[in-house]
Structure formats: C-alpha cells, structure tokens
Design brief:
Layout (H helix, E strand, L loop, with lengths): L2 H28 L11 H34 L17 H6 L7 H4 L1
Length: 110
C-alpha cells in the first residue's frame, strides 16, 4: 500500500475512533436503567424499556466496532495490511475507507 493511501486511511481510522467513542457515550446514557419511581404510564414505560434494549444492542455493536478499529489502527504499518484474511487478495481502498474496521474483502464478507 502506498504511503499516501496509508496516511489517508490512518486519518479515516482516527476519525472513526473518535466518532465511535462519542456514540458509545451516547448509547451508555440511553441504556441506563429506567427508575420505577418515574411517574410515567404503563405504555410509556414499555416504550422506554424497548428503546433501552435497542440502545443496548447499538452499544454492543459500537463497542465491537471500536475494538476492530483500534486493532486495524495497530496493524496499519504491517506489510499485509489491506489484504483479506481469508482469500489473501487486496481489499479495495474504497471498502477500507468506507469500513476501515473491515479485514475481509466484499466476496469473503458475505
């Protein structure tokens, strides 16, 4: 991989890490337990519980993405960076810029 592309990808990964950390903080706030003493109706409480479970799922997904981004950032200087871990073919730069946490090409990710 060329140095200019590697630098562009480093910047993209750093940007995604910052954005994902921000989302994690938001999801943690949204997934806090609903206090039973809140005077909300039964339907509203069920809606709040449902929204909380959605936020918890989004939190887990964001935490996984953050972990993957940090791993990819730590591997960016390796000679085989940008190579699919299954088929060993180069991952297109467009895919890496769109999903910098990906270590699979499009064909292998299906």
């Amino acid at each position: 991989m060329e140095d200019t592309k590697r630098d562009e990808l480093k910047d993209k990964i750093k940007s995604e890490i910052v954005k994902t950390e921000k989302h994690i903080l938001e999801y943690r706030e949204l997934s806090k337990p609903i206090a039973p003493e809140n005077s909300i109706g039964r339907i509203s409480r069920m809606d709040a519980i449902n929204n909380r479970s959605i936020s918890e799922a989004a939190l887990k997904k964001a935490e996984k993405k953050l972990s993957d981004l940090k791993y990819m950032f730590s591997q960016i200087e390796e000679s085989d960076f940008g190579t699919c871990i299954r088929c060993k073919k180069p991952i297109p730069m467009g895919r890496l810029l769109l999903m910098p946490q990906s270590n699979l090409c499009v064909n292998c990710s299906v």
